[in-house]
Amino acid sequence: MSENKLKVESLSAWFYEKQVLNQVSLDFPDKKVIAIIGPSGCGKTTFIRCLNRMHELTPGAKVKGRVVLDGKDIYTEMDAMEVRRKIGMVFQKPNPFPNMSIYDNVVAGLKLMGIRDKNLLDKVVESKLREVGLWDEVSDDLKRSGAQLSGGQQQRLCIARALATDPEVLLMDEPTSSLDPSSTAKIESLVRVLKNHATVIIITHNVQQAARVSDYTAFLYLGDLIEFGETKKVFESPKNPLTEKYVTGRFG
Amino acid sequence: MKVRRAKDFIIKLISTLVTLLIAVPLLWIIFDVVIKGASALSLEFITSLPAPFGETGGGIGNAIIGTLIINTMACIIGLPLGIATGIYLSEYSNGSRISALLRTAIDTLSGIPSIILGLFAFSIIVIRVGHYTALAAAFALSIIMIPVVSKATEEGMKTVSIDIREGAIALGLPKWIITTKIVLGIAKSSVITSSLLAFARISGETAPLLFTSLFSYYWPRGINEPMASLQVLIYNYAMSGFESWVVKAWGASLLLLLLVLSINILVRRFSTKVV
Ligand SMILES: Nc1ncnc2c1ncn2[C@@H]1O[C@H](COP(=O)(O)OP(=O)(O)OP(=O)(O)O)[C@@H](O)[C@H]1O
Ligand SMILES: [Mg+2]
């Protein structure tokens, strides 16, 4: 087992009075893909939004507990913007910046932070678009608006955008839920490659997808972490009957 | 079925007639101004000073430049304030008491007759400096621009969805960069469109200028001086009763009309290009 990149220690979260995460503790190993599964409303999105300090932006949101990235508490020892540069995020719905070209979308996180070096930006654009498998589809017209791409292309563009700042952890919230099977397959194979340089935490509603892409799986239910372990074990010999019911599709 | 088709037909007929009815005055105005003003147009007309009284020839060059200078100054004051107010109301006020107050102030401002703004500029600037000045005109006109631009900026920025904003936040960008480069960037066409419309709007304002920049028969010598403008020139010349001046007033009207129409065409292009 490799060392842990991100440690979560009894993390609880609320919306106003309503507690939606109950003392979740788990360690995310470095350079692995971890799937978060669980029925709708169990707190998956809330959980990963606590990991890059996006949860606190929601009205009424409260967080308790610790999230530690490489030994540093992201809530007390790091600035929220620094956290988000190190822990990137891809959303359920593709959200490219509609006022920007494909090129500018990819390097938005760099360019808007003042990086002007054209050679560097060019290189980042090409390498990240290649990585997400979009280069061949768009390289002839990088000036086109990012909003003009298909849904699947937009989502890959958003992944490229998140990767451009070289995050150490990448959070993905059901990144394929709005995509067709072939786009989904492209993103799944991408996820398997991404772990070469980052820890990938991916929420999915599709247990087969979790089985296909992840090394570890966490099962959340009603705000509790029910089970966490190697994906193979979670799927083949779950410790908790609830997990077994869920992964075999008997509820949820 | 037949009844419905008949209804369809009647509604089509009525709306076509109404459209024509509205188009008639517009075309009539344009036609009238072109007929009466075109004969005045010449190179001399747009490049030279008014001829001394009693002499023929001369032009309205100083009034053209004057209107452009006054409008530019009004933009320099009004656009940044309008845009900044719009940004504040959309992004930073989050429902505070001050923002409610500011919003009421902006709404009220947009309803104040321009002649009162002229009087206001007159009382706080012209009286104090002791002479008519283009600065006071620019000040009065900028107050007309502010509500137009701030409302459009606010609305344009508010349409930017939470999804897009979160995408930017998740990149670790600071709020001010997200606001200016992404949210304002997306709202850019609203900002540009409203700025152009505000410019067109002040190009027609005359009452505030009568209290502030008044008129001058010379080339503009400084921004803190009385200054000629197309609007006041039209007013003066049209009322003068001298045939040659009345023709010049029509010529100036034609130029003003062209300015405003071309801005409107620009606006149309902007708002159709950016979807
Ligand atoms: N903005 C909000 N305000 C109040 N309650 C919220 C808000 N967002 C989510 N919740 C509640 O928090 C709980 C957890 O929601 P969350 O979005 O984390 O679930 P999820 O597991 O991601 O669900 P799904 O699979 O449907 O995306 C739910 O009960 C939901 O109703
Ligand atoms: Mg969710």
Quick structural summary:
Chain A has 252 residues and is α/β, with parallel strands linked by helices.
Notes on the structure:
The complex is a heterodimer of chains A (252) and B (275). Chain A is an alpha/beta fold. Chain A has one domain (4-247): P-loop containing nucleotide triphosphate hydrolases (Rossmann fold). Chain A contains eleven helices and ten strands. The longest helix of chain A is centred in the middle third of the chain and has 14 residues, at 118-131. Chain A is globular, with a radius of gyration of 18 Å. Chain A starts with a strand and ends in a 5-residue tail after the last helix. Chain B is an all-alpha fold. The radius of gyration of chain B is 23 Å and the shape is globular. Chain B has two domains: 2-38; 44-273, MetI-like fold, CATH 1.10.3720. In chain B, helix 9 (188-204) runs antiparallel to helix 12. Chain A binds chain B through residues 52, 54, 57, 81-86, 88-89, 91, 93, 95-100, 108-109, 112-113, 158, 161-162, 165, and chain B through 161, 163-164, 166-174, 177, 181-182, 185-186, 188. The structure holds adenosine-5'-triphosphate (ATP) and magnesium ion.
CATH architecture of chain A: 3-Layer(aba) Sandwich
Annotated CATH homologous superfamily of chain A: P-loop containing nucleotide triphosphate hydrolases
Assess the beta-strand content of chain B as a share of residues: under 5%
Largest sheet of chain A: 6 strands, mixed
Using only C-alpha atoms, the radius of gyration of chain B works out to 23 Å
Query: CATH-wise, what's the superfamily of the largest domain in chain B?
Result: MetI-like
Q: What count of domains describes the coordinates of chain A?
A: 1
Domain unit count of chain B: 2
What oligomeric state is this? Answer: heterodimer
The tally of helices of chain A reads 11
Task: Report the order of strands and helices of chain A.
Answer: EEEHEEHEHHHHHEHEHEEHH
The number of strands of chain A is 10
Distance between the termini of chain B: 38 Å
Low-confidence stretches of chain B: none
